[in-house]
Design goal:
Elements (H helix, E strand, L loop, with lengths): L5 E4 L3 E5 L5 E6 L2 E4 L4 E4 L3 H18 L6 E4 L4 E5 L2 E2 L2 E8 L2 H7 L6 E11 L8 E2 L1 H6 L5 H23 L3 E15 L2 E7 L7 E5 L9 H4 L5 H12 L17
Antiparallel strand pairs: 1-2, 2-3, 3-7, 4-5, 6-7, 8-12, 9-10, 9-12, 10-11, 12-13, 12-14
Helix pairs in contact: 1-6
């Protein structure tokens, strides 16, 4: 079997050419990075959990009519997605102050915001993904005004969906980031949620205890990242509480 052609390798995923034109195989790595890759480690099993969780969220979004690039999960570490042109922005939705917002504005972490706040960062690791305004986006042609209206609508719909899903299992959705892709059908373009949605890209806190169940566990050395992600998967039913033990061989007459 011919080896697949690698298209791109990022900090958490590797992309390969898909089996059909217009498709890509997205491979989830165990690598963990923080502070623009200044802190690095390999966390066994992280890629598997992110693959399963991202599949779960993308399928759920599809069921409520939010378009995504997701096609199907191929195995424990890979999923098949539609090829798309990524808008060079990270779209961040914040429900509570945390992380860079708390530092930037001097707001205590955990403070509930008066309404969801959507921010945009220009995707460029060498620049540290700087915060940008819609004026920058329009001036540099990264997205049209119609695109920005659609991106805002998508981001808020994803926020409503994820917030409700997490609340139902005792988790507070503090914030998250998504990427948006352009898919072309002939001359027609539509925007879809791309990349991944996982604890790597969300801040998730236990509602009762405030325990962090996201990548801040790694950033701040708060314990086992695998345990935190596994807890999210367990509560959502993506991973069973007690996986069945292997059955014993049965004598067949």
């Amino acid at each position: 079997m011919a080896r697949r052609k690698k298209i791109y390798e990022g900090k958490a995923k590797t992309l390969y050419e898909g089996p059909e034109p217009g498709t890509i195989v997205q491979y989830f790595k165990d690598d963990a990075t923080a502070f623009n890759a200044e802190k690095k480690d390999v966390i066994e099993g992280k890629g598997v959990l992110n693959n399963l969780l991202s599949e779960y969220f993308m399928l759920g979004l599809g069921q409520i009519g939010v378009p995504t690039h997701f096609l199907k999960r191929l195995n424990m570490r890979e999923q098949l997605v539609r090829s798309c042109e990524i808008v060079p922005l990270e779209v961040i939705v914040r429900n509570y102050a945390a992380g860079s917002m708390s530092k930037r504005l001097g707001i205590d972490e955990g403070t509930q915001l008066p309404r969801p706040i959507v921010e945009y960062c220009y995707k460029d690791d060498s620049l540290g993904d700087p915060l940008v305004t819609e004026e920058h986006i329009a001036a540099f042609g990264w997205a049209s005004q119609q695109d920005m209206d659609d991106i805002l609508s998508l981001a808020l719909r994803v926020n409503d969906f994820l917030s409700g899903m997490m609340l139902a299992v005792g988790i507070r959705l503090v914030d998250f980031k998504i990427e948006i892709g352009r898919v072309y059908d002939g001359d027609f373009q539509r925007l879809v949620v791309a990349d991944e949605i996982s604890p790597d890209s969300c801040r998730l806190w236990d509602i009762e205890s405030g325990q962090k169940l996201d990548k801040d566990v790694f950033r701040r050395d708060l314990g086992s990242l695998t345990d935190a992600y596994s807890e999210v998967a367990r509560r959502l039913g993506v991973m069973p509480n007690n996986p069945p033990a292997p059955s014993k061989p049965t004598l067949v007459n």
